[in-house]
Design goal:
By secondary structure, this protein is mainly α. It has ten helices and no strands.
């Protein structure tokens, strides 16, 4: 665990660095420590999760996915890895895969507001507007002061042709401080 802790120290310093060469060197040191930590303790989630974070920061989404998947071998319902996998799939356009991981998160963490937002958005992208509305409304029921739920609901109503409800929800989004 000492290697993982040292890896985290290097990763945080790399994320804070504005010098590209220093950032690369610190990431390399972090990768080395996390790799050692993951080899010594293969069922310890932190090294693999953090290697995924670094790979993603270096724009290597395939490597990031691989590390996040390895972290799930250690802890099958590790929320941060599940979330990052779902978001990567969402932005890659692999909507059904994203939805699978988002639902897996909600199965373990049913009050996870962030994943309700992501599910609503994923169903918007999929053009399944009733499902997008369903998840946006679930989010509103749980946290009515979160503007993005209303934005997603407005977008779903608009796409479904219901301009009156789209306008009402857009106005609510703006009244809560949402930025267009």
């Amino acid at each position: 665990r000492a290697h993982a802790a040292l890896g985290s120290e290097y990763r945080v310093k790399a994320e804070q660095s504005t010098n590209p060469q220093e950032k690369a060197e610190l990431y390399d040191k972090a990768i080395k420590e996390y790799t050692i930590g993951g080899t010594i303790l293969p069922k310890y989630v932190e090294p693999f999760y953090n290697l995924g974070v670094i790979a993603f920061a270096q724009n290597d989404t395939m490597k990031a996915l691989d590390y996040y998947m390895k972290s799930l071998d250690a802890v099958p319902f590790y929320r941060n890895s599940l979330h990052n996998i779902a978001v990567i799939y969402l932005y890659q356009g692999k909507i059904d895969s994203s939805i699978t991981y988002l639902n897996r998160i909600l199965g373990q963490y049913p009050n996870d507001n962030e994943e309700l937002i992501n599910l609503s958005y994923a169903y918007l992208v999929k053009k399944d507007y009733p499902k997008a509305m369903q998840y946006a409304q679930m989010g509103i029921e749980r946290q009515p002061d979160v503007p993005v739920h209303y934005r997603n609901l407005a977008a779903a109503y608009s796409a479904a042709g219901d301009t009156m409800n789209a306008r009402l929800n857009w106005e609510k989004f703006l009244s809560l401080g949402g930025k267009p």
